[in-house]
Design a protein that fits this description.
The protein contains twelve helices and eight strands. The protein has helices spanning 15-28, 43-47, 59-63, 69-72, 90-98, 106-112, 131-139, 153-170, 190-203, 216-220, 228-231, 236-252, and strands at 2-6, 33-37, 73-75, 82-84, 120-124, 142-147, 176-185, 207-213. The chain is globular, with a radius of gyration of 17 Å.
């Protein structure tokens, strides 16, 4: 079982879209996938077709150890993957965890109990470097960083890279950056091409070959409770995510 965080401390960069569609893409190519929603906004939960308001137990109960992962799992009807969902309640965990023991390793411990059940676990992180994100980073083997090719993209990356280095040094020696994924890409915009070239120069083969284009079907799919990959499989966005799933699976052997 390989565990990956989808992380970037900026909001609106495409983390949830990546998490949901990569989960659906990996399921489509025959892998057993668990998607963990670690964002109190619950967008990955809703985008997988699961009502966050009706979630009980949720990932919150798992982190506070009042429920097991097995009890909290739900199947995404369209995506064909399992979901450990989140809602507003999870925001409270941030505060409640602070006084508890092993507070940053709760998710790691919980996922050990389902080790035999999944090939991939994808963790959709909130837009912060908080206790929740720290739980994700401590549980993971690697980080997938979705990013838009904008002017300040590289600068914004340094905080995340430093956090990953610190977690690697102090809490989780397994942790590494698996790769940077260019998302919402528009090749007609010269600046995006330039930033993309810069990224490749700077990070080399840590930049995934697959590029996710800006595609309106990916943005529409969540309101139907579906990953874009199943909502409109023929769309450019869906095809790119399936290709990305293949690239990732191949890279890991
Ligand atoms: P994050 O989880 O980082 O906050 P989201 O995945 O929620 O980011 O994406 C932010 C917004 O951009 C959402 O409205 C989403 O539908 C839209 N979006 C994400 N990726 C794409 C894409 N490739 N093409 C078009 N819209 C996208
Ligand atoms: Mg999100």
């Amino acid at each position: 079982m390989r565990i990956f965080c989808i992380a970037n401390q900026k909001g609106g960069v495409g983390k949830t879209t990546t998490a949901v569609n990569l989960a659906a893409g990996l399921a489509l190519v025959g892998r057993r996938v668990l998607l963990v929603d670690l964002d109190p906004q619950g967008n990955a939960t809703m985008g997988s077709g699961i009502d966050k308001r009706a979630l009980d137990p949720s990932v919150y109960d798992v982190l506070l150890e009042s429920s097991s992962v097995g009890e909290a799992l739900r199947m995404s009807p369209a995506g064909r993957y399992q979901v450990l969902g989140a809602n507003r309640e999870l925001a409270g965990a941030e505060v409640e965890l602070v006084t508890l023991e092993r507070r940053e390793k709760r998710l790691r411990a919980a996922l050990k109990t389902v080790e035999a059940d999944f090939d991939f676990v994808l963790i959709d992180c909130p837009p912060s470097l908080s206790m929740l994100t720290l739980n994700g980073l401590c549980a993971a083997h690697g980080v997938i960083v979705p990013m838009q090719c904008e002017y300040f993209a590289l600068e914004g990356l340094s905080d995340l890279v430093n956090t990953i280095k610190q977690v690697h040094a102090n809490l989780n020696a397994d942790l590494e950056i698996i790769g940077l994924l260019r998302v919402m890409f528009d090749p007609r915009i010269t600046l995006q091409q330039q930033v993309s070239d810069q990224l490749k120069k700077h990070f080399g083969d840590k930049v995934f070959n697959t590029v996710i284009p800006r595609n309106v079907r990916l943005a529409e799919a969540p309101s139907y409770g579906q990953p874009g990959v199943s909502f409109d499989p023929a769309s450019k966005g869906a095809q790119a995510f399936v290709e990305f799933a293949r690239e990732l699976a191949a890279r890991l052997g």
